[in-house]
Amino acid sequence: MSFKNLKVERIEDQLAITLSKLYPTDKFDLVKIGEKKWFLSDKYVENGDKIYSFEIRPDDTWIITYPRSGTTLTQELVWLVANDMNFDEAQRRTLIDRFPYIEFTLLYKHILFCFSIETMMDSHTISTIISNNEKKNLYKYTVEFVQNQLSPRFIKSHMPLDLLPTVINSDCKIIYVARNPKDVVISWYNFQKDCKIFQYQGTFEQFCNNFINDHVNYSPYWEHVKEAWAMRHKANLLFLFYEDLIKDLPGTIKRVTVFFNKSYSDEQIAKLVEHLKIENFRKNSMVNQPSPRSTMEPKEFIRKGKVNNWKELFTPEIEEKFNKWIADNLKDTDLIFPN
């Protein structure tokens, strides 16, 4: 299917009103895209073909996840494994430079609006006075920046595979990471509440309801994960669980090492394990960078990194609702989360 033939359903009526109250700073409408009704900013209608038809190189590496599924940790792990454990370069260059997020400015064009909140200036004024250095930082978040990277390129995306046809029809390396949806919803809620781009104003219970009903960015969650799970046997796709990253990091590193046809000593793997420990990772300024000029604190971007953290916030009512939702969505699949 071509990009122009993707079905577009506008979010209207009461749902649009409700979402506008939950996200008062979001100046763009929301849409459902394609047959699976992916929940995205309407900026995707205008700009999405840049990613939908993105020209792939055979030595590209893509990390694809539903948001808050261990993406940043996996990026650093994969980059170091693929680049001969070059810790020196990893400590000089930000992860944004080494592993850019391809759709950020494509979907979140109101980033200049975020600047205007900070400075009390309008977005047009901001766009004319931001420094060259800030413009350079913003460029790191554009499709053009990714296109112009020297090979081998390393690319992060939260887009579903359904909307990345050139990626899934190529031989480039794809790493997909899935995480228990109960922990995803906790992390996604905290991120949207703390991040200036979203500034979510609702309750956790409201967020859970929207998550279950596929009214949160990049949803539906189950379609996102299941389509990658269905492709897990492809030679160029490595499917990982976040829970395995946390519970057996050395074992996961070895799986990634095999995927890249690399060989490392036990000492090198131990060094990478230490580098990726959450307490060290959170202090690493090269990876803990939420977004350009973000007012989020590092502790809010890279948070606890725990498994089963949902138990701290779920009420019995929310847990019961999630258990039913999960059971209903796992009926037609052999997908099983490690915990």
From TrEMBL:
Q: Name one GO molecular function term.
A: sulfotransferase activity
Q: Where is the Sulfotransferase domain?
A: 58-333
Q: Which Pfam families match?
A: Sulfotransfer_1 (PF00685)
Entry keyword annotation includes Chloroplast? no
Q: What are the entry keywords?
A: Transferase
Q: Which PANTHER family match?
A: SULFOTRANSFERASE SULT (PTHR11783)
Family stated for the protein in its record: Belongs to the sulfotransferase 1 family.
Mind telling me what this protein is named?
Sulfotransferase 4A1
Species the sequence originates in: Cyphomyrmex costatus
